[in-house]
Amino acid sequence: MEHLTNFQSTADMQAADAAHHLHPFTDTTEINDKGARIITAANGVYINDSEGNKMLDAMAGLWCVNIGYGRNELADVAHRQMLELPYYNTFFMTSHPPVIALAEKIADLMPGDLNRVFFAGSGSEANDTNIRLVRHYWASMGKPDKRIIISRKNAYHGSSVGSGSLGGMTGMHAQGGMPIPDITHIDQPYWYAEGGDLSPEEFGLQAARALEAEIERLGIDNVAAFIAEPVQGAGGVIIPPSTYWPEIQRICDENEILLIADEVICAFGRTGNWFGSQTFNIRPDIMTIAKGLSSGYQPIGGSVISERMAKDLDAHGGEFAHGYTYSGHPVASAVALENLRILEEEKIVDTVRDETAPYLTEKWSALADHPLVGEARNIGMMGALELTPDKSARAPFASDEGTVGLICREFCFANGLIMRHVGNKMIISPPLVISKSEIDELAEKAWKCLDLTLAEVNNQGLMEVGTR
Ligand code: PXG
């Protein structure tokens, strides 16, 4: 970046960062004390920092760099598009070639009758769109009381006031006046921590039926939609039991509510199919997309709605008074289109499904043999390890939630592996292009860091069992 800056050292950058940059989801005191880790370059599944360290990025950035880093084709397309038409909007009866081509391509890839795209700049924006869209839809259909959106505890749908309210993160709700009215949250299908003595299948049914009970409690005439991630990502890669989604689908079909699949993480190959809705046989009325749509090379997201909803809105909706300056941004659209071309032509999703995800499952599930691991689960290219002081009891640690996970994450950083922690869960979501030998490296490093964590946890006397 010499062409943009004249920083002389990491310390230089850290000082300027501390002085002038407020970071998302970061404790200001902590980052200013320790200094930010500064990432300077990336290629394939690896990132480089300003101190010359190279790390295997098992999070694909923030679950988004599906095709891996360093694909020059996307840079070339962005360059060409910037020269030709760097910006124009899609408001007031206008459009442009890249957004038209992208909308058509997305509709072509989508399952079921999902067929029309409302573009946004991010997943948060797209979910904000969904809140207004489903209410506008029901009002247009003569049912203005159908306003309430049911979501789930520990869901993540974004960080704006609307999408953060859809989410079920209590820590977020505690800041800034969330949730907004007419959003409720039911229990999540998290068998490992909340399933008790039930089998996963029994628990899956129970968790799904909480939706039916909630619709009954609120009154069907007041409920607009149910929103859920096919697999909760930020909540800790919570893979629902096999009974969960079929029951949710039945409940949505039998009651008059719209089903929103938030596939910001799951879409574009993450679960081993193009869409999580295919993996779990979900038939959504709306799908939220972002992240893997452009592999993170440009900020872009969207809400894809069914042909049935679109036709109803054509007939009864009039003007939807909503939109973002960057809805369908031409450069972001062109880059997303090129990303989808690469995903498709290089058969990246097929390779994940048929070869690398099964290989990851084999290597990842072997981590369950580690004394600190209570469960090692994955679906496609996303996975979690449940750290525990007592494997057989699925027990939590007595220490503050996340203490052990944080220790493990720090060892991962120090040993060239980017693995996130959510509480005491270690999670991965590597680029879909990760090779078998890179998966070997991931699993070896993970085991080593678990060993280091176990030693440290014993050292600090943290193996005590707590209660949930
Ligand atoms: N829905 C889902 C399912 C997500 O995972 C969003 C919506 C919001 O997207 P934007 O583009 O507005 O960030 C997300 C984003 C984490 C983490 O720490 C997860 C996300 C974003 C940032 C951090 O796991 N997911």
Outline of the structure:
41% of the residues lie in helices and 15% in strands.
Task: Give an overview in words.
The strands form three sheets. A seven-stranded mixed beta sheet has the order 4-10-9-8-7-5-6, with helices on both faces. Strands 1-2-3-13 form a four-stranded mixed beta sheet. It has a four-stranded antiparallel beta sheet with strand order 11-12-15-14, with helices on one face. The chain has helices at 10-20, 28-34, 60-63, 72-84, 97-109, 123-140, 161-166, 170-173, 191-194, 200-218, 244-254, 276-279, 307-316, 330-345, 348-365, 403-414, 436-459, and strands at residues 39-43, 46-49, 54-57, 114-120, 148-152, 183-186, 223-228, 258-262, 286-289, 301-306, 373-379, 382-387, 417-418, 420-422, 425-428. The radius of gyration is 22 Å and the shape is globular. The protein contains 17 helices and 15 strands. The longest helix is centred in the C-terminal third of the chain and has 24 residues, at 436-459. Strand 2 (46-49) and strand 3 (54-57) form a beta hairpin. The protein has two domains: 37-70 and 348-459, Alpha-Beta Complex (Aspartate Aminotransferase, domain 1), CATH 3.90.1150.10; 73-345, 3-Layer(aba) Sandwich (Aspartate Aminotransferase, domain 2), CATH 3.40.640. Bound molecules: 3-[O-phosphonopyridoxyl]--amino-benzoic acid (PXG). Residues 62, 122-124, 127, 156-158, 229, 233-234, 262, 264-265, 290, 301 line the site of 3-[O-phosphonopyridoxyl]--amino-benzoic acid (PXG).
The kinds of small molecule bound in this structure are: 3-[O-phosphonopyridoxyl]--amino-benzoic acid
CATH structural architecture of the largest domain: 3-Layer(aba) Sandwich
CATH superfamily of the largest domain: Type I PLP-dependent aspartate aminotransferase-like (Major domain)
From the spread of the alpha carbons, the general shape counts as: globular
Q: Helix/strand/pairing class, anyone?
A: alpha/beta
Low-confidence stretches: none
Total strand segments = 15
State the distance separating the first and last CA atoms: 48 Å
Largest sheet: 7 strands, mixed
Output the strand order for the largest sheet.
Answer: 4-10-9-8-7-5-6
The overall pLDDT average reads 97
Q: Which bin fits the share of residues in helices?
A: 40-55%
